[in-house]
Amino acid sequence: MNQPATLPADVQPSPSLWSRAADLATRVISDNVLTLVARVAIAAIFFLSGRTKVSGFLDIKDSTYVLFQEEYHLPLVPPDLAAHLATYAEHFFPLLLILGLCTRGAALALLGMTTVIEIFVYPDAWPTHLSWAGLLLLLVARGGGAWSLDRRLGLR
Fold this sequence. Notes:
Elements: H1 17-28, H2 31-51, E1 54-55, E2 59-60, H3 62-72, H4 79-99, H5 103-121, H6 126-142, H7 149-152
Antiparallel strand pairs: 1-2
């Protein structure tokens, strides 16, 4: 029967290539890099969505109202109000994320919006919404990181 080779107590096995690569990635890619990338990535998604709802600076398009009246069907919120809230939220909260200001609150607001979109608007788009939730949950849990106004201002 084959017995595993034993090493003397003072000799450690050399780490595998995979382990060395993982250690390098851990040293090079800090939480601050991850939170910055998450902030920019999710902010871009929501901000660009918000830009499709307006013309000019923040003039809501007629087509936006039509979407909320005929396609989105949100419960409890009148379509015109929902159009305004969603459009302004998709501009305001991404801006906060880019700045790293009130990061946890902005991420939580967009996570709530993602949940509403998933449940009431596009329930079959859960793979996309799950990826958004992953980025947003990282920001809720870790905050904006060292490269954020939250950190500069001493906010959690």
